[in-house]
Amino acid sequence: MGDYNEDTAFLGQTGPYFWTTFFLLNTVFVSTGFNGLYIVFVGATPKHHCFIPAINLTEEWKNAIIPVTTVAGQVVQSQCSRYKLEVVRNLSAEGYIPGRDVNLTSLEQEGCLDGWNYSKEIYQSNIVTEWDLVCSDQWKVPFASSTLFVGYLFGSLISGQFSDRFGRKKVVFISLAAQCVAVLLQSFSHSWRMFCIMFLFVGASQISIYISAFVLGTELLSKTMRVLLWLGLTHMFIPESPRWLLTQGRVEEADAIVRNAARKNKVAAPQVIFKEPVSVPSEKKYTMLDVVKSKNIRCITLMCLILWMAINIGYFGLSLNTSNLSGNPFMNCFLSAAAEVPAYIVSTLLLKKCPRKSLLSTFLIIGGGVILLIQFIPSTLHYVALALEMTGKFGFTMAFSIVYIYTAEIYPTVLRNVGMGMCSSAARIGSIIAPYVIYLGEFVLPYILMGSLTISSCVVNFFLPETLNKDLPETVEQMQEYYG
């Protein structure tokens, strides 16, 4: 196969065709953004204590029936136990005064047999209050979060295979339809189990959209426009990847797409665009095994897997922790998300000129450093913790945008979606772990591990090849030639 970049150089680096494709692809990305982190709110645990049924108790016993405990130096009501209702009722009926006539610490306690009372100060209703996901069932909240990321894992594994075999465009729009159905069904969930199952399908379809659309944009857009793909519609307006079509021997379709791009960019296309004859593609279909057959590609893939996993642990660790920070959780989440906007803009500017390796290492250190610090900030210094959270999100968002571009530039066209899918699968292992790290957030050690892993991944990054200003490899042989 001829050199695609050379054959299509007449299109230029920008123009109406590239800008239209760019904005249409970004509308697809926007559709994936609504579902990723809303679990921060629907899975948030409001203040709660045992429900006390309407029985005849004195006012003193009504106020004393919930035991108190000390948490982080503050005296608070127990969330998972009450003094045994029958004992309290008898003591109240006999006229005993709690704390004066009765030593409360000696009273027998029981669980919340009649359910819980939840504070409505912030959340009126969510999955925690609807299905009582507290106390012995509180593990179900991080499990629900993880089902989304398990869906990401499955979607990452299969989307690359389907996209390389059937085309990027088909997978993008089939996945869009699947996501719409899954989200609709999840909104009508009547149980925690159904919610989790639907969340699995939401995750699988969402990551399939994201990876396939990203690869499609990487292959459709020019070298200049490619790095813009990270800022921020219909099937007939987004074309298939000409690069992929050429690898499948579908030259006429690739030719038609490129000529259409020339018309939109108002440039003249040569009479013969793809000058060298295109060989008929072999029956070989590339799979994940092809990514690990060659020692060179295997080592590159292993290093990419480590990077993606470390970045995802840090990113989702910070993101899912926003509801646990002091202050209004909605404002905290808004500011945390707002920190990502300048990160995308800055990364776009830096990726045009700067080496990928040094950029990635710099922002991994920033994000990992914040994780190491944020858990040691006392609750009284709310604004300091929030500033660190925003700094960390900035660093991890930068790392996210860089690693996506970087990985897509390393792999050849015939393996790009498979490679991206494998890396995304490793990333999902990190994001599956992240909710449980937050669940165990009262212990400092998990955060030390997360921050240390992120910072140490910088060492791995230095062994990857630099891709700045290099053409995208089309074949495995070209990849080995570029980075051998």
UniProtKB/TrEMBL annotation:
Keyword Transmembrane: yes
GO MF term set: carnitine transmembrane transporter activity
Domain of life according to the entry: Eukaryota
Keywords: Membrane, Transmembrane, Transmembrane helix
One GO CC annotation: membrane
GO biological process: heme biosynthetic process
Keyword Transmembrane attributed: yes
Subcellular locations according to the entry: Membrane
Protein name per the record: Solute carrier family 22 member 5
